[in-house]
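Recap slide: Serine-pyruvate aminotransferase/archaeal aspartate aminotransferase, sequence and predicted structure.
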Amino acid sequence: MAGRNHLYIPGPTNVPHEVLSAMHAPMEDHRSPKFPAIFKPLLEDMKKVFRTEKGQCFIFPATGTAGWEIALTNTLNPGDKVIIYRFGQFSHLWAEMAKRLGFDVEIHQETWGKGIPLDKLEARLKEDKNHEIKAVLATHNETATGVTSDIAGVRKALDAAGHPALLFVDGVSSIASLDFRMDEWGVDGAISGSQKGFMLPAGGAFLCFSQKALKATETSQYPRCFLDLRDQMNQNKDGYTPYTPALPILYGLRKALDLLLEEGMDNVYARHHRLAEGTRRAIAAWGMKLCAHPGFESNTVSAVVVPEDKDAREVISTAFNKYNLSLGAGLSELSGKVFRIGHVGDMNDVSMLGAFAGVEMAMLDCGFDIKPGSGVAAAVEYYRSTEK
Ligand SMILES: *Cc1c(COP(=O)(O)O)cnc(C)c1O
């Protein structure tokens, strides 16, 4: 098929040309005296994206899933109690991981479409007088449902309860695209990955830990080796890594950080909000609804609920086979019920309008009762009338 594939899944996201070019470079000796000059500034500049001065950043040749494991196994002890609210496939997988790793996981089921219930969390933390809960696992942006939780609110709940639990945040599909504040929100472990807001291929787990979390690595008896933060700390202080780093990811990250910081993080958040709002206007004009309940809408991904007599999988396969447009699938219990439009990373007005046009064609082909051009028109008006 002529023309490029149009990628609108919420990860991997589109990699900007400048980043692709930066990755296309010869390999080098990662133990050479020149390497720290590449590596150290990456760890420093990443702090500006996580918004921390007190925390310490880490890069593992891995993915976000490893980040979940790194947070848990470096700071806790086997059998420790952790609490998690489950409201989508990613919070589900993190909870399952914690179980498989031998932690005592207190799982609270929430409606898929809502986020962390702050009042319930606060009540539960207040009830835990003996501080048996050692960590709160919070999914900032549930990519499966397009739901964003209020992490500042989670911190407030912990503080209101005077609870010392560590706060671990899955920011894989939020950090570098949605407002995130490591220090201000008192996050102890922030977990991200290269292939979403950072606009890189998968292959980098990008993490940040507070001093409190780093202190906990000293008392953690959990067996660990490849994912041991202490080995990273020992080597990172001199600008090296305990094993071979994924060099192309590092070269790409240099460029991606330059692009993000040049745009300015507040502008990056505002752009994602604006592009997402246009998407929501288009969806409303089609007469369709988000999976996300009001107040929880994500600015990086929209999960669109199809009418009950329709199968979202058909929309996705038509979009791909006929129009070379890749949409996100409904995961697990949402399979067939939603398709997802990713609006994260290297996107602008016209790239979003292309997605809406393609989605309209695919939905019309699948017999949806929508007016051709209605979603595009709503977004055109919104984008034209709002400041970048
Ligand atoms: C993508 C994603 C992950 C998983 O990351 P991998 O890089 O695939 O391991 C975890 N959490 C959230 C919220 C995600 O969007």
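Residues 11, 63-65, 90, 139, 141, 143, 170, 172-173, 193, 202 surround pyridoxal-5'-phosphate (CB under 6 Å).
The first strand starts at residue 6 and ends at 8.
(End of recap.)
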